[in-house]
Design goal:
176 residues, mainly beta, Immunoglobulin-like, six-stranded mixed β-sheet, three-stranded antiparallel β-sheet, 0% helix
């Protein structure tokens, strides 16, 4: 299984507790890392698929990330799926803004960073079974703790790779 490397994440000093910029996390319990993940949306057209993930700063400190999320995929039995994880769109497709280079993003409490996963649902070899991931895990950067990335409706993800074995990952950027 390929993992994506080359990303840096760090937490900053605690903000002044009297600050009005501190935000309260309204989601489930905030992990010790201070960030939580969720699927923010998906799009599928003519075999090209994009899944958008958000990383929310649910902690009380600014959180800085620079690079790409680390991702790994699992089938419906929670078995790992072998996949080549590419920085940007690679040879999968050319999508505007997907290949923008990484830049440092600092999230205040309550803010979120966004990344996209890109793949094609193609079957190019009849001797190789098509693969579908039902579970996605992500980490803000290499070496950081893994978290399952849930859909907002708590259903499993659906990443139908066909038999391409490739997944493009977009660099973190500030979410609107």
């Amino acid at each position: 299984m390929a993992l994506l490397a080359g990303c840096v994440a760090r937490q900053e000093a605690l903000p002044d507790p009297s600050s009005t910029t501190a935000s309260t996390w309204a989601g489930p319990t905030c992990p010790k890392e201070g960030v939580s993940f969720r699927v923010a949306g998906s799009d599928a057209a003519m075999g090209l698929r994009v899944l958008t993930i958000d990383m929310v700063n649910c902690g009380r400190r600014p959180y800085t990330v620079n690079g790409y999320p680390s991702v790994r995929l699992f089938d419906e039995e929670h078995e790992p799926i072998e996949v080549a994880v590419l920085r940007g769109s690679g040879s999968i497709s050319s999508v505007p803004d997907f290949d923008n280079p990484p830049s440092e993003v600092t999230l205040r409490p309550g803010e979120k960073a966004r990344s996209g996963l890109l793949w094609r649902n193609l079957v190019t070899d009849a001797t190789v079974d098509a693969t579908t991931a039902s579970y996605l895990e992500a980490a803000p950067a290499e070496g950081r703790p893994w978290q399952q990335v849930p859909n907002e409706d708590a259903n499993p993800v659906h990443i139908d790779l066909g038999n391409t074995g490739q997944l493009g990952v977009q660099a973190w950027h500030k979410a609107p």
